[in-house]
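Input record, target 12 of the design panel.
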């Protein structure tokens, strides 16, 4: 088990994050609760900034907001000098409401609607990453109607199978994303973009997958993309100036995960670029990277209360918490593994192996199989670690569970950045047609 960022055990033997005792956070804000460690997020942003932006020429780090997005998060990212990747009208709306500088926004997505594209054009976002021919034609029409010139990148599927869960691989040929490099589709996309007087083709984008540990996958990506950029220049006589390498850098969730250092990731990209640019006689492009998980993953902790405990002698002990797959769908979607601690008794020795289950009506609602913990009882607090990425952002109201709140902790202060949903929030958009409204019918 590994603690992250500002997580420590305090004198009471409790888990403390950002100078806040998690036992007090539970009593003040209730559980389940997402806790985000602001200092840790900022520290990682700074590592990215110093390794990629300061350590390399003409580089931009863009936070992939799908990992975790709120108004407060937008402000932190902007203050740390990073750009923002958004993939929907909702993410874009959040960024704009947070007054994120539009020119530092990259708009992604494999099925952007006309409305979403219009929203991006109105806001004058920095780059639209065009994924497919349908989108290119929509965008071209919109740009022409408005007499606007739009800076675009093309999303390319480079044909790399990164070693990660198949649901989060994206670079392989059989993928819903992007223009395929190997069968001429990417060439056609470049030609079409170059033939438009409203679309300004700045460069290419590729993203090979997520939770990747082998730096070699990124080296491979750079080699393939730079070669393709050089070949395209020969073919079209047009130089693509920007190369967005996507995100995907892995983090520690549980034993066996061995992420490299961000500085080594940067070194790999830099060396691979040096080699590829020399080999293919191509000038250094502007490099953009889009980390999501690695910026917020280890900065998040989910705090739960333990409730029912069921022991099947000789088989298993199920320990149920007051959340589950609705606030963290990753174990049931990707067999993702997590570590956890008993937050109110961090100083106690582990005594038994238990399995942590959620409260949803699904046998598959298991957060952690076979974890060693001190002997737990109802009312104990369980802190699941590394839940900052793709937890809150992928949460649902399954079983009509209200979503937990999110608090941002730093230097002993805890600020609510997303309020806990209430039961009445769950009915906010429900509409009862008059013919089904029995109270009204009875009163007539
Ligand atoms: C286009 C794109 N960029 C960036 C990311 C962020 O990836 P990660 O969270 O693995 O860094 C993703 C998600 O995998 C993505 O699809
Ligand atoms: N949601 C995935 C990552 C997908 C990233 C988006 N392309 C996860 O939790 O691991």
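The sequence produced for target 12 reads:
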């Amino acid at each position: 088990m590994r603690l992250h960022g500002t997580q420590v055990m305090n004198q009471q033997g409790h888990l403390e994050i950002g100078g806040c005792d998690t036992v007090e956070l539970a009593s003040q804000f209730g559980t389940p609760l997402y806790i985000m460690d602001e200092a840790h997020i900022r520290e990682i942003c700074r590592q990215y900034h110093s390794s990629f932006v300061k350590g390399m020429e003409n580089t931009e780090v863009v936070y992939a907001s799908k990992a975790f997005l709120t108004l407060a998060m937008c402000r932190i990212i902007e203050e740390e000098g990073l750009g923002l990747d958004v993939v929907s009208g909702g993410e874009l709306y959040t960024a704009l409401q947070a007054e994120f500088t539009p020119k530092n926004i990259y708009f992604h997505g494999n099925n952007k609607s006309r409305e979403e594209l219009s929203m991006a054009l109105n806001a004058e976002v920095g780059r639209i990453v065009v994924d497919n021919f349908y989108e290119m034609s929509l965008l071209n029409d919109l740009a022409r109607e408005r007499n606007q010139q739009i800076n675009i990148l093309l999303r390319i599927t480079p044909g790399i199978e990164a070693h990660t869960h198949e649901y989060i691989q994206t670079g392989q040929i059989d993928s819903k994303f992007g223009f395929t490099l190997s069968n001429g589709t990417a060439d056609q996309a470049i030609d079409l973009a170059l033939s438009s007087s409203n679309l300004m083709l700045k460069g290419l984008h590729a993203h090979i997958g997520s939770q990747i540990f082998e730096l070699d996958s990124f080296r491979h990506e750079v080699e393939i993309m730079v070669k393709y950029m050089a070949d395209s220049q020969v073919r079209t006589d047009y130089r693509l100036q920007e190369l967005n390498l996507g995100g995907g850098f892995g983090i520690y969730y549980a034993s066996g995960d061995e992420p490299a250092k961000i500085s080594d990731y940067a070194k790999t990209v830099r060396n691979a670029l040096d080699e590829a640019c020399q080999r293919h006689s191509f000038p250094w492009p502007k490099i953009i990277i889009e980390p999501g998980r690695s910026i917020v993953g280890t900065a998040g902790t989910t705090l739960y209360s333990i409730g029912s405990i069921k022991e099947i002698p000789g088989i298993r002990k199920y320990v149920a918490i007051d959340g589950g797959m609705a606030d963290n769908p990753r174990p049931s979607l990707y067999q993702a593994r997590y570590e956890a601690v008993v937050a109110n008794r961090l100083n106690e020795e582990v005594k038994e192996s238990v399995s942590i289950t959620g409260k949803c009506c699904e046998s598959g609602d298991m957060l952690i199989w076979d974890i060693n913990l001190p002997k737990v009882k109802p009312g104990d607090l369980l802190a699941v670690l590394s839940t900052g990425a793709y937890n809150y952002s992928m949460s649902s109201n399954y079983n009509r569970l209200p979503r937990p709140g999110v608090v941002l902790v730093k230097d002993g202060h805890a600020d609510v950045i997303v309020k806990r949903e209430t039961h009445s929030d769950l009915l906010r958009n429900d509409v009862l047609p008059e013919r089904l409204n029995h109270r009204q019918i009875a009163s007539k």
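Residues 156 and 179 are 5 Å apart (CA to CA).
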